[in-house]
Design goal:
Elements lengths: L1 E5 L3 H12 L1 H8 L4 E7 L2 E4 L6 H11 L9 E3 L3 H7 L4 E4 L11 H10 L3 E4 L2 H17 L4 E2 L11 H7 L5 E7 L2 H13 L3 H10 L8 H4 L2 H13 L11 E2 L7 H9 L2 E9 L4 E9 L10 E8 L4 E7 L3 H19 L1
Parallel strand pairs: 1-2, 1-5, 5-6, 6-7, 9-11
Antiparallel strand pairs: 2-3, 3-4, 8-10, 8-12, 10-11, 12-13
Helix pairs in contact: 1-3, 1-13, 4-5, 5-6, 6-11, 8-9
The structure holds NADP nicotinamide-adenine-dinucleotide phosphate.
Length: about 325
């Protein structure tokens, strides 16, 4: 399977790392030999139709900061769309930054690959939250696979879990903690009695919250994930503007202490059902499956046959997120074989 990776930050590098780590395992178990034939970042590309060396890709990015400095096969300044047109490949791994205004550049990358008849795997929420139906239709029209497990909950399996493991069940609603940064802040506020501002500042110092935390703390990131789940699992044709969103920036240590006294915790919960599309702070009972701490994600799927099924997992991380991308790649390979 020849792979092009667009974006070589935390997730792109995680993908190169897991491919290198699992080479023998993938060959033995699935007869799959993933070959990275091109990688791009904002500096340009590394391209070799015979396959790039994963360790050399990682070392080049770490030491030089630019993938276009890859020895002999670096191409400075080349645009990702041009790479998609000129390189022979089977599957695009789209892992450029999320943009929730127009979904670019990922949206154009994904459409270009699909129109060229290539399968696509992505962790990028932006294009999915803004135009899920269009992308889904584009994949169907071009008879290609389109997989995005990593876009919701990083390593927490939920989309493929709903479609495959729970096949035969109707999923009626989904309810969950879908943002690790806000869960970390709320958990620490509950454990330490600290203020929102102080806890956010410490989370930023630790690299858990971004310098501009707006999309996380105001619930936008969780809302994007709710849109993806509503479309892909509940078949609801909604977009980001349909979600009612309230974040955690107005939560005080006093309200958390009051909740604790009553045996409750405050969590940022996303809900998708035919009646509700919402992200907001809600009370959950201490000791319930939703009382997870740190940066963990959790989601409950309400089903007709199996009742409630809950999954918990890491919502972010380089290798953790890459694990979901690898699982999508393996599933595409199994289908194509
Ligand atoms: N990190 C996680 O744990 C996680 C979990 C789930 C989902 N995601 C999603 O996965 C995607 C990637 O996340 P990340 O953490 O890896 O982001 P990141 O560390 O910021 O990396 C983004 C990469 O994309 C490159 N890039 C920017 N514009 C580009 C373009 N036009 N063409 C090609 N490459 C371009 C950047 O280049 P430079 O290196 O030159 O700046 C960088 O290598 C995002 O959409 C994110 O929301 C991330």
């Amino acid at each position: 399977m020849r792979i092009v990776i667009l974006g070589f930050g935390a997730v792109g590098q995680g993908v190169a790392h897991v491919i290198s780590l699992k080479k023998d395992y993938l060959q033995r178990k699935y007869d799959l030999n993933p070959q990275i034939v091109a990688v791009t970042d904002s500096s340009g590309a590394a391209i070799n139709p015979e396959g790039l060396d994963e360790e050399l890709l990682l070392n080049t990015k770490t030491e030089k900061g630019k993938i276009s400095s890859y020895p002999d096969y670096g191409v400075p300044g080349v645009d990702s769309l041009k790479v998609l047109d000129e390189v022979e490949y089977d599957c695009l791994v789209e892992v450029t930054p999320t943009d929730i205004d127009d979904g670019e550049p990922a949206r154009s990358h994904i459409i270009k690959a699909m129109e060229n008849g290539k399968d696509v795997v992505t962790s990028n929420k932006g294009p999915l939250a803004l135009s899920f139906k269009d992308l889904d239709a584009c994949a169907k029209r071009n008879n290609v696979e389109f997989k995005f497990e990593a876009s919701v909950g990083g390593a927490m399996p939920i989309i493929n879990f709903a479609h495959e493991t729970l096949a035969g069940c109707s999923i009626e609603s989904i309810y969950g903690i879908l943002n690790g940064t806000t869960n970390y802040i709320l958990s620490r506020m509950a454990n330490e009695g600290s203020s929102y501002e102080q806890t956010l500042k410490e989370a930023q110092e630790m690299g858990i919250a971004e310098t501009n935390p707006y999309q996380d703390v105001e619930g936008i990131d969780a809302a994007c994930k709710i849109v993806i789940l509503a479309n892909s699992v509940l078949n609801l044709p909604v977009t980001l503007k349909d979600v009612e969103v309230e974040g955690i920036s107005r939560i005080t240590s006093e309200s958390i202490a009051l909740a604790k006294k009553e045996g409750m915790l405050i969590k940022l919960i996303g809900e998708a059902s035919p009646d509700a599309l919402e992200v907001s702070p809600r009370l959950v009972r201490q000791g319930s499956p939703f009382a997870v701490g740190g940066t963990l994600n959790v989601a409950t799927l309400k089903t007709d046959l199996a009742d409630d099924v809950t999954v918990v997992g890491k919502g972010a991380g380089s290798v953790e997120t890459a694990s979901a991308i690898l699982s999508d790649m393996v599933n595409i390979w199994k289908k194509r074989k």
